[in-house]
Each structure stands twice: as C-alpha cells, then as structure tokens.
Amino acid sequence: MAREKDEDPHPVDRHVGRRVQEKRLDLGLTQTALAKAVGVSFQQVQKYEKGTNRVSASKLFEMADFMKVGIPFFFEGYAGAQPGLAEEAAPAFDHEHKPTKNSVEISRLAPRLPPRKQKLILDMMRDMLGDEEA
C-alpha cells in the first residue's frame, strides 16, 4: 500500500536511508556512483537517503553487496528494533545530526591518531562548541 503524499516517512525507512547515506559517505561514494551501481537515478538515491521512498528488498540487497556490508548493517541501531533470541540489544542510534562528508572523514581519521592527539582534537572541538563536558 502506498503512503499518502502528506504522510511522514516511516521511522524504519528514515533509519535505513541514513545508514545508506552514512556508508556511502564513509566509502567516499557520490549519490551518482551508488545509483549507477544499483541501477537507479541519483534522485532515487536521494529519496532513499531521506526515507521519502522505501528501499526495496532487491535494491537493499544490491546496495549491501556493492558496499560490502551485510543487510543487517542498515538496521543496526534502530531503537524500535527488537533483538532476536540470539542477539544482544544494539545501542540506540542517534539521528539528531545528519552525517556530512567532513564528519564521516573525521570519524574515519580519528582512530589513526595517537590517543593524546585525539584528546587534543576533542578538547578543541568542545571548546569551539562551548561544551566543557568530559
């Protein structure tokens, strides 16, 4: 059944879309490159990432294969998800801030720095934000 035009995207669709976007940015891919790899337009990738359009099972499978992740990757951290009997609960995924190309690169590069330099950068970021919490 199709959603009404004024209906908000389902939280799962938004979550999956954000996970697609995060992984795409983490891999340094453009929307066009991902779109070409899975046979859709870059506009369709934009709609997937916003959660406006649901990703079909077959497209999710193709994206997972192309990005070298398992399908569960796209659902990890969804607060509404219930773990199965053999799974542990995943930490809640923070949707407050959309990832940017720069924030993804920061998170990718930070672990390569020695702990002392990571702390210096963290202190500098907190100072810039006026956030003195430890």
Main sheet overview: none
Separation of termini? 48 Å
CATH topology of the largest domain: 434 Repressor (Amino-terminal Domain)
Percent helix range: 40-55%
Mean pLDDT: 82
Which labels suit this protein?
single chain; 134 residues; mainly alpha; 434 Repressor (Amino-terminal Domain); 2 domains; 6 helices; 50% helix; globular; DNA-binding
Task: Summarize the structure in words.
The chain has 134 residues and is mainly alpha-helical. The chain folds into 2 domains: 1-99, Orthogonal Bundle (434 Repressor (Amino-terminal Domain)), CATH 1.10.260; 100-134. 50% of the residues lie in helices and 0% in strands. The protein has 6 helices and no strands. The chain has helices at 11-26, 31-38, 42-50, 57-66, 101-109, 115-129. Helix 1 packs across helix 3 (42-50). It is globular and about 45 Å long. The model has no long low-confidence stretch (mean pLDDT 82). It holds the Pfam family HTH_3. Residues 20-74 form the HTH cro/C1-type domain. Residues 1-20 are annotated as: Disordered.
Condensed summary:
The protein is an all-alpha fold. It is 50% helix and 0% strand.
How are the elements arranged and paired?
Elements: H1 11-26, H2 31-38, H3 42-50, H4 57-66, H5 101-109, H6 115-129
Helix pairs in contact: 1-3, 2-3
